[in-house]
Amino acid sequence: QVQLVESGGGLVQTGGSLRLSCAVSGSIFSINAMGWYRQSPGKQRELVASITSGGSTNYATSVKGRFTISRDNANNRLHLQMNSLKPEDTAVYYCYGDRSVVAGGVPIPFRSWGQGTQVTVSS
User: Fold this and answer.
1) What pLDDT, on the 0 to 100 scale, is given for residue 1?
2) DSSP state, residue 43
3) Residue 29: which of 49, 52, 53 has the closest Cα?
4) CA–CA separation, 104 vs 95, rounded Å?
5) Residues of the chain with pLDDT under 50
6) N or C end of the chain, less CB within 10 A?
7) Would you state the pLDDT for residue 30?
8) What own/partner pairs with CB < 8 Å and gap ≥ 24 does 67-74 have?
9) Are 93 and 82 in contact (CB under 8 A)?
């Protein structure tokens, strides 16, 4: 069983920074890709950034150069450093982790989600 708990959200002014963390209960080594999605009212959930177990990263065009995703395997944590924040970054941010689970002897992909943390950027 793997559980994900986000922290670090809050209210910040335009141009400010926040660092989100996602604590993983259970072994982070059982998780393959991890990442962050965000969702604001009236909009679809958007992939913000992802990182593989090997450390390869991917970013949405809207955050590239401003956000940095990192994975701390020693402490079972995933981070998202967000700099130069804009009002359009306001959303609930969710972390996720992908792993394989065995059902009936067959490995199947499974995604775990955190509960979300609110980020609000004031203009």
Assistant:
1) 77
2) S
3) 53
4) 28
5) none
6) N
7) 80
8) 69/35, 69/36, 71/28, 71/34, 73/28, 73/29
9) no
Q: Report whether 71 contacts 59 (CB < 8 A).
A: no
Contact 35, 95 (CB under 8 A): yes
Q: What is the DSSP string of 50-104?
A: EE-TT--EEE-TTTTTTEEEEEEGGGTEEEEEE-S--GGG-EEEEEEEEEEEEET
Nearest to 16 by CA among 94, 106, 89: 89
Are the CB atoms for 67 and 80 separated by under 8 Å? yes
SS3 of 20-34:
EEEEEECCHHHCCCE
Query: 5-26 pLDDT, tens per residue?
Result: 999 999 999 999 999 999 998 7
